[in-house]
Design a protein that fits this description.
By secondary structure, this protein is of the alpha/beta class. The chain has one domain: Metallo-beta-lactamase, Chain A. It is globular.
Length: about 180
């Protein structure tokens, strides 16, 4: 059974025999539903029409996007670290060429996400790199539409990831809104 992806926000849902009736992220006041209504795709369908894009932002920091633009145009960042690379935020698509490129620079040891608009295909990302942990603030637990054992909910105001990387809960847009310092 497929994991449907909302075409408006890019959120991937748990396996199901049919498309969800509505996207919880889009029906929330912080997002929107297109005037044409709710539309869905799958990761496999997205792979046929889109690809990942990569851009060097600065030494040790790589931007990752989707072309042509999809959903809300999310951008992820690969933060390279001697203790293990961290993926900051997710994009809805993960193509084989990107997996190969990331593995060539050391893979991913953890994923951390700022807020629900970037949860997207977090399970796909975790599994592609060996079931790496995905750190989400517990205050945003209700917004995880595809639960998985790789998801690690953390509480409090900070969470150390190692090698000088720390998640800091700032709240704001969502209660668990987080930055990576």
């Amino acid at each position: 059974m497929p994991n449907f992806i909302c075409t408006t926000c890019g959120t991937q849902y748990a396996e199901g025999g049919r498309q969800p009736a509505a996207c919880a992220i889009c029906t929330d006041d912080r997002q929107y539903v297109k005037v044409t209504g709710q539309e869905w795709t799958t990761h496999d369908d997205l792979l046929r029409t889109h690809r990942n894009s990569v851009r060097a932002e600065e030494p040790g920091l790589t931007g990752i996007g989707v072309e042509p633009a999809f959903a809300i145009g999310q951008r992820a960042l690969l933060v390279r670290s001697p203790a293990g690379n961290v993926l900051w935020d997710c994009v809805p698509l993960l193509d084989p060429a990107l997996v190969e490129m990331i593995n060539a620079v050391g893979g991913v040891s953890a994923i951390a996400i700022s807020h629900p608009h970037y949860y997207t295909s977090l399970v796909e990302w975790s599994r592609a790199f060996g079931e790496v942990p995905v750190y989400l603030h517990a205050a945003d637990r209700q917004w995880v539409m595809r639960p998985d054992q790789a998801v690690v909910f953390w509480d409090g105001e900070t969470k150390a990831l190692g090698d000088g990387l720390t998640l800091v809960r700032c709240g704001g847009h969502f209660d668990g809104g987080t930055v990576l310092h």
